[in-house]
Amino acid sequence: AEPVEGSNEWFWQQANLAYRTRQYDSGHQTLKELLEANPGDLELASRCLERILRESARGSVYSYYRHYNHSLKRSVGRAKVDSRYADNPWVQFAAQRICSLQRLGRLRMNPRIVEQAVEVSLNYDVRHGRALHAVELIDRFVDAYPQDPFWRISQASVYRRVGSSKTQALYDRLFAEMD
Fold it and tell me: Alpha helices of the chain — where are they, by DSSP H?
């Protein structure tokens, strides 16, 4: 039985079809419409945003190799081909919303996806001169997960990239704890 047009299943079917045929923008737009049709459904939001982020990465790799005439088969699994991924508006759309859901403390999502979303947001902020926003974002994650080395190393890196006077102290603390 075909899903009813406008139902959640119908949106997922349309998005899957678009992604299978490498129509990434269409798939992303379909999932965005699904999000907008279901405000407050945080589990659905998490699933949609994770899928947009994942498919954006696939789309960036596909576009890179198609553009430079490389074989996709030889390079399957390469992450972060170039900055076009981070500057992709759909990547930014998903990453910013994932960070917002985390700020609300209501996010149930694969931690690797959250890390990827935060990393994308941080890189975008630093490259576009939004140092204060980047520092606030990484500090929020370090405060929430003070024992997690990923966030603490990321914090030191962001502070270094924005030229903060606190950089050396952060690295010294990390090195002292490693000994």
Answer: 8-20, 24-37, 42-67, 83-87, 89-104, 111-127, 131-144, 149-161, 167-178
